Protein 1
Amino acid sequence: MFSLKGKIALVTGASYGIGFAIAKGLAEAGAKIVFNDINEELVNKGLEAYREIGIEAKGYVCDVTDEKAVADMVSKIENEAGIIDILVNNAGIIKRIPMHEMSAEDFRRVVDVDLIGPFIVSKAVIPSMIKKGHGKIINICSMMSELGRETVSAYASAKGGLKMLTKNICSEYGEHNIQCNGIGPGYIATPQTAPLREIQPDGERHPFDKFIVSKTPAARWGTPDDLIGPAVFLASDASNFVNGHILYVDGGILAYIGKQP
Ligand code: NAP
Ligand code: GCO
């Protein structure tokens, strides 16, 4: 029931990072991988990286916030690879700026990519999933779908909205045998969080790095590969009666008050 043999999986923003790891895992479970990224250089970098691990993926240059480009990409994928069975809305950005200093333009761009993008791509793939009689949509949410923190107001707002979009797609399309769930990663070591893990000039670990490790029962940062099992589960027949659920893959951080300093 965990096999993805014969399935086409689109993972957005998957040249590297969490998207790449999830695509790798879906491929290992049998899926054919198609992915997009925001520019040719990243797509080519991703194709090379997939080839290096024996995965013949198809890559497309597409900004998930551009509705026409997304519609064109989905139609190209349907012609070149087949109907998309599994969509992972992974592409995302973050801007860490104190809210009172953040421009509305910056706030809008984060919401555009992290919330409107998943809406646009989901809207583009759902009609064919309905025709085919099944579909899996996995939205990459965040701990910030549940919690806030300084400087991430736009990101938390977008990821909170993505949690509710997940529940709404579940509600609206469950009768078409489309399951829409979320994965909420905790703190994962990728380029997006590299600034939070930088070694300080005195050689010490970043204070935020130490803070996260003290707040995580697993006492470590997650790795992108920690997300593979949950993604294969939510992409496979094993989760056909799981819908509208956000699966937190966070080492327990959301359950824990944190170690006494
Ligand atoms: P990442 O390293 O920054 O990778 C994000 C990918 O998405 C990059 O390839 C990026 O391309 C691409 N992208 C950005 N904007 C795009 C757009 N408009 N259209 C298409 N592709 C776009 O991030 P990550 O850490 O792997 O995170 C992936 C997802 O997990 C994001 O949704 C993030 O919010 C979420 N997440 C991350 C963590 C974590 O701790 N890392 C935890 C929870 C959730 P560029 O290189 O051009 O930006
Ligand atoms: C931050 C981090 C987090 C992680 C992730 C946590 O600045 O707090 O980037 O937002 O990316 O979303 O789940």
Protein 2
Amino acid sequence: MFGIDHRNRLWSGLGFAFCLLLINFRSLSKLSAEEFNYDESKVPPYTLPELLKCEDGTLVDSIDVWNTKRRPEILRMFEEHVFGTLPAGKIPLRTKIRSSVPDALEGRALRREVTVYFSDDDHGPQMDLLIYTPAGATEPVPAFMGYNFDGNHMLEKDPRIHLTESWVLNRKELGIEDHKARDASRSGSASRWSVPEIVGRGYGLVTIYYGDVDPDFDDGFQNGIHALFGKGDSPRAANAGGSISAWAWGLSRALDVLESDSTINAKKVAVFGHSRLGKTSLWTGATDQRFAMVIANESGCGGAALDKRIFGETVSRINTAFPHWFCINHRKYNNNEAEMPVDNHMLIALSAPRPVYVASAEEDRWADPYGEYLSLYHAGPAFRLFGRQVFESDQMPAVNSPVQADVAYHIRTGAHDVTEYDWEQYLKFADTHLR
Ligand code: GTR
């Protein structure tokens, strides 16, 4: 039993510790990107979990052991410790064509908007697919599918594209201060999509505003598609899926819809994403093997980069700044990456043997370009099991010198963004693997 004095001391000690924790939490979220490690010599020694060794010590020496034992184990670890899971089970989908323009982009594309409803309620959770296919295509085309950041209307000036009614991130530069999309911002993200080149090369593009599926703020998982899975989960399970899981789920539902679309070959769809949406494309490729190719553009921490390198963004920082992206269990690894039972070479390996493209930008040190390359390199053994050609060297290629085999990588000059250069490489990779 504690005497009064001891108890007081204990309480004030606990209070002090709590304050420290709070200060630490607050100050961490305020730390600017400059205050993290960008010095290769300060990367701590780290050990990556073995990709081809099962939990019971069995070594993976065949495609069968990989498919039936190791791959499911790795997938489970990512569900349990990183992204979390959403309740399984089919959600009936309804669709409605919102618009169809046969001569969009100066006659180059058929452009359709398809609303996908996730419930019987027309005002319930839903998403709008914006679908471009080459005008006059006579057979189903391979396609890229990926979320956009600010709404489908950001791809083109055309006022016929529906202005999203979903919650959007405020952006002063676009005049958005009340989380509502504005007409004035139409075509603001056109440079990130290279639509004329994509359709010109014979591909389709399917894009969706990610906030339709789950608005990107921490609201305790009440909005977006989380509402479909019951709000009664309180307290939230430590392995319940966060926003990245929700976004991945949305892309799978979009692929469900494409399976009965006559213009797109649903067996040849590459999932694409930039940054947080690149983390999402990797998790989508891992959870839904129907996607034929996976592209992660500058996906960084929690995406392609090796988290155990502690270079640029860290697990602690990402969970503090974006508490809704991952599952609660992921927070166990705040400042504790060494204890993570997985790292992101295993996330990439979950897409094997399908072709995977990882891309970085030279100035995007926050996303740890070398860590992104190394992850792809260390995922190699899973691809080799299938006879796929991967990279032999752990040294990344020079800037603006893409390397493509059955996996691909480039680091280009410039900042965190998606550019025409990036799309040129993705199209070339798709020409090899999706044709
Ligand atoms: C940053 C975040 C990154 C990346 C990026 C983005 O603030 O730290 O992990 O996801 O946002 O999505 O633009």
